């Protein structure tokens, strides 16, 4: 529910703001279609697969471990919000290597920070993201997965915000409280910069980028976003094998 409300609130605020609504009007029909089908795929279909097919797969592979893990609620929350976030950092960096960039480049065709473009990907990219497999695994293993799911929901809501145009002002208290540790929209915008800025791979925390030397600091958003590709609509959805130059560095 948190993710749904975050999406509705961010979308409503965008539509209600004339300047930000203009960004929606500038979107190409192809981008609307790709974003829409991916939001359905990642927002509805993938969660269903997690609690059905993938969950049943673990029942088959690990029949004696269902509900075998009893964690304190805070520990369970930290597993999803902190530990899995670190795993995702490396997962994301792998997407920027020469082996997986051709799949991930579709996400970087976004030319404006847009909550609707959060899930823009090739449709089968979700099967290469650890969230699909790790979340289903912990839900299967935990006796009480409610706090783990709460961490998942918060991460997903922050992901929507991180891809939106609503960036906190550097002079605000909100910015000063969150900026030292949390990846903000302006930080993630630099990850999408057309200039090919290397870094800011983290989802929730800046700590991982800072530890591994991939953090790029800037209070304001870059002048332009997105990489240019010659991908057709079919390639964007299924077979993005037309290699483009982009951020291919670890």
TrEMBL record:
Q: Which InterPro entries match?
A: Fatty_acid_hydroxylase, Sterol_Desaturase_Related
Q: Which UniProt keywords apply?
A: Membrane, Transmembrane, Transmembrane helix
Q: Name one GO cellular component term.
A: membrane
Q: Which residues form the Fatty acid hydroxylase domain?
A: 78-214
Task: Name the Gene Ontology biological process terms.
Answer: lipid biosynthetic process
Q: Name one Pfam family in it.
A: FA_hydroxylase
GO molecular-function annotation terms? iron ion binding; oxidoreductase activity
Question: Which parts pass through the membrane?
Answer: 40-58, 70-90, 123-142
Q: Mainly resides where?
A: membrane
- Where is the protein localized? Membrane
* Name recorded for this polypeptide: Sterol desaturase family protein
Name the lineage. Bacteria, Bacillati, Cyanobacteriota, Cyanophyceae, Nostocales
């Amino acid at each position: 529910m948190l993710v749904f409300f975050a999406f509705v609130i961010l979308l409503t605020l965008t539509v209600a703001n004339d300047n930000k609504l203009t960004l929606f009007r500038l979107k190409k029909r192809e981008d609307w279609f790709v974003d829409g089908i991916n939001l359905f795929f990642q927002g509805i279909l993938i969660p269903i697969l997690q609690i059905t097919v993938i969950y049943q797969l673990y029942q088959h592979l690990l029949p004696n471990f269902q509900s075998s893990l009893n964690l304190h609620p805070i520990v369970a929350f930290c597993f999803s919000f902190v530990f899995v976030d670190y795993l995702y950092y490396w997962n994301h960096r792998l997407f920027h290597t020469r082996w997986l960039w051709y799949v991930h480049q579709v996400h970087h065709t976004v030319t404006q920070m847009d909550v609707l473009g959060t899930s823009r990907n090739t449709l089968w990219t979700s099967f290469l993201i650890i969230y699909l497999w790790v979340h289903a695994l912990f839900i299967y293993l935990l006796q009480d997965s409610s706090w783990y799911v709460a961490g998942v929901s918060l991460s997903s809501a922050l992901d929507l915000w991180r891809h939106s145009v609503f960036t906190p002002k550097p002079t605000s208290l909100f910015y000063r409280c969150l900026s030292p540790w949390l990846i903000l929209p302006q930080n993630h915008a630099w990850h999408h910069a057309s200039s090919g800025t290397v870094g800011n791979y983290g989802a929730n925390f800046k700590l991982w980028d800072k530890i591994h030397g991939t953090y790029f600091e800037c209070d304001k958003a870059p002048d332009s976003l997105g990489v240019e590709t010659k991908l057709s609509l079919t390639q964007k959805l299924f077979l993005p094998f037309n290699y483009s130059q982009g951020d291919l560095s670890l």
